[in-house]
Specification:
Order of helices and strands: EEEHEEEHEHEEEEEHHHHEHHEH
CATH superfamily of the largest domain: ATPase, nucleotide binding domain
Largest sheet: 5 strands, mixed
Structural class: alpha/beta
Number of domains: 2
Strand content: 15-25%
Shape: globular
CATH architecture of the largest domain: 2-Layer Sandwich
Helix content: 40-55%
CATH topology of the largest domain: Nucleotidyltransferase, domain 5
């Protein structure tokens, strides 16, 4: 009998879910629903329950075929209890016992990890890092996320907070202050004195605006510095870049790669690969589903 896991990606903007087989086949369609993260906790929870319930009711699978539910969510998290702590983009779910509430609601085992770890795990099994022993996933969007996968397992560190590089001091703040949507807005304001959103800055660069192109060059430089730190510490075979900002990969990849190569040891320069995701949001859902398969063997 084929077995499946429900993979769920909870974000500040939207929540997505799908039933996934062990080989990465999506059953039916990915279901998406606005998270409405600013709404009261009970309403956000009800919407989460709704998208999972709809996924479980797929005509193509039976209840007996479902091994469990895997969820990727913004951190920080208490991984032992599956509790969301205090992520800024889920303001009404602070200290929310996610694992406990989902197990009570659906009667299935639930496994929780942060969304960047799920992205990295999804890429390691089904994406650009497939068949690699050591890989890193970076998510660039509203915030900055990172996950490390070694021999098919998420590297959690001693306290479950490995790869939380966003908070690392950099310049007059931390890396997330630059390598995020708000970081792009800040860079553009510094250069032009004007304010544009990250998608608008991308569009301006695509249309040849010189100052917008300069912003992306600076962004690539700062990202290259971050990646150099990670490479010198972890020595991965591949790094995969995802998140909404990765759609502009072609605008910053040249400066990023140049900066990386100038700041890492000679040996990694020979074979290191840095790719843009091809899975997109599916990587997070695949990774969340893998949490189930890895824990229910």
């Amino acid at each position: 009998m084929a077995r499946y896991a429900i993979g769920v990606d909870v974000g500040g903007t939207k929540t997505s879910a799908a039933a996934i087989s062990d080989d990465g086949t999506i059953v039916g369609n990915i279901l998406r629903i606005p998270t409405l993260a600013e709404r009261p906790r009970q309403e956000v929870e009800a919407r989460l329950f709704q998208v999972i319930e709809k996924t479980l009711r797929s005509d193509s699978i039976t209840a007996e075929q479902i091994l469990g539910i895997g969820v990727g969510t913004p951190g920080p998290l208490d991984l032992d209890s599956g509790t969301i702590l205090d992520p800024w983009n889920l303001p009404t779910l602070h200290y929310y016992p996610l694992k406990q509430r989902l197990e009570q609601q659906f009667g299935l085992p639930v496994f929780v990890d942060n969304d960047a770890n799920c992205f990295a795990l999804g890429e390691a099994y089904f994406g650009q890092a497939k068949n690699m022993s050591v890989s890193i996933g970076i998510t660039l969007g509203t915030g900055l996320g990172c996950g490390i996968v070694i021999d098919g397992k998420i590297f959690q560190g001693a306290t479950g907070t490995a790869a939380e590089i966003w908070i690392t001091p950099y310049l007059d703040g931390n890396f997330e202050d630059i390598l995020s949507g708000r970081g792009l807005v800040k860079l553009y304001q510094q250069i032009t004195g004007q304010k544009k959103t990250a998608p608008e800055i991308e569009q301006a660069a695509q249309q040849g605006e010189k100052k917008a192109l300069e912003v992306w060059q600076q962004f690539g430089y700062h990202l290259g510095i971050l990646l150099a730190y990670l490479i010198n510490c972890i020595d991965p075979e591949v790094i995969v870049i995802g998140g909404s900002i990765s759609k502009a990969f072609e605008l910053f990849k040249g400066k990023m790669r140049e900066t990386v190569m100038q700041n890492i040891c000679p040996k990694p320069r020979e074979n290191l690969k840095v790719f843009c995701t091809q899975l997109g949001e599916k990587a997070n859902i695949f990774g969340a589903a893998r949490l189930v398969f890895e824990n229910r063997r």
